[in-house]
Amino acid sequence: MGQMRLNDVVAEIVGNVIAGRTINKRQAAVERWDDIDADGQYLAGIDGLVGRIDDRARALRVKAEKTAGSAQAELPFQLPAAVAMDLEGTTLVATRKLSRAQFERAIEIRRQQIAHDSAALREWRIALHQADRFWADHPDWSFGQCLDAIHGVAGRLRATPEVLS
Description:
Layout: H1 6-18, H2 25-32, H3 38-59, E1 82-84, E2 92-94, H4 100-135, H5 143-159
Antiparallel strand pairs: 1-2
Helix pairs in contact: 4-5
């Protein structure tokens, strides 16, 4: 059993990524597990179990009920067997048990998640567009090098005095 707090071990692992190293998250977790104190291991175990519950709930789909003597009908939609009732995804409810109000809430949560994902995607596309100006001339550059070049251009534009006519 280690002496380090869970957050400190996580910060070190993420720090390695920020420093430019490529990591395998599972391998890093295994390698650093014994460095984490008992409270941190307990919390990590709980978080791991929550993640597995979430993954399984998202993977299962609502299926049509089998009726005696008839073939299973195909549904004209595919929904998860359980849905989150909050943005954090901590409260799961079986899709079959949803009231109409809960069904509408699940739709609203999904809409908000999609909006957040769409906003993040827009940021990635803007960043790619900005970096492409430099990748065109330097295809071997990393994004970090392009980012430094973007900062350099922006700094030069701010330093250039305005010309008044």
